[in-house]
Amino acid sequence: MQVPAPVEYERATSVEDALGLLERHGSESRLVAGGHSLLPMMKLRLARPEVLIDINDLRELSFLRRDGDEFVIGAMARHRDVLEGAEAGQLFPILHDAERVIADPIVRNRGTVGGSICQADPSEDLSAVFAALGASAVIQSSSGKRVVSMDDFHRGAYSTAVGPAEMLVEVRIPIRPNSSSAYEKVERRAGDWAIVAAGAVLSLDGEQITHAGIGLAAVGAEHFRAAGAEEFLQGKPANEESFSEAARLVSASCNPVADQRGPEDYKRHLAGELTHRALRRAAARATGQES
Fold first, then answer.
1. Mean of the per-residue pLDDT values of the chain
2. 8-54 has CATH 3.30.43.10 classification
3. What does the DSSP assignment read for 135-194?
């Protein structure tokens, strides 16, 4: 089946209008912006919304800006906007690393940050990136806004904390001093979903790690994070011995599924290796040894 089921179409003119349409049409309505995740699922009848609400006119959500000790990305920011955002890349190199390997230029031109993480695909890159960064999601309804951590936002495969009459409006990333980050991904071909991907965020005080974040995609990591390896790195020296042990913990803790992209043991090995590489690059960037 390659043809979507019949669906009604509405076009929202503002956030308030979009929320009103969601309330009016109920749980069988879905928001659409780029549509690169939702429309293929509709063609396969894996998703069958009764109403599509187009939010491409919600330009008030198309922003990247610094807000005190946080960096804020609007849900309607396109992948291209993040990739071309100089401040975003300077503060969080992991964002540029990941955006370079998300799909292809056509998808990056139209796909949105909010659409990507709301899809909650287990192999999705930005979900792993924001998990590593310790970001939080701002969810809005007609009664106001609420802020949830990425752990609370990701509830499982294709499931998030966004309710039927709610929408994600922005992602907030804490800015930590003396920090940097990196993202590593292995894919079957350019632009494909990850076989395995790993992101690392490190904050340093001299050679000591004061904060660590590790995000994983495509290996069944709970909330896209490697919490045990993060905890281990806290207070450890930023050296190969620490990174090797963290990589071992990642390999042991992840829960990949054997499929056409590879067997479980291969994916476990790859998760550890990519984590090691990402940690090494994040540390080099934090100490000015790599741009």
1. 95
2. yes
3. -EEEEEETTEEEEEEHHHHEEETTEES--TT-EEEEEEEE--TTEEEEEEEEESSTTPPE
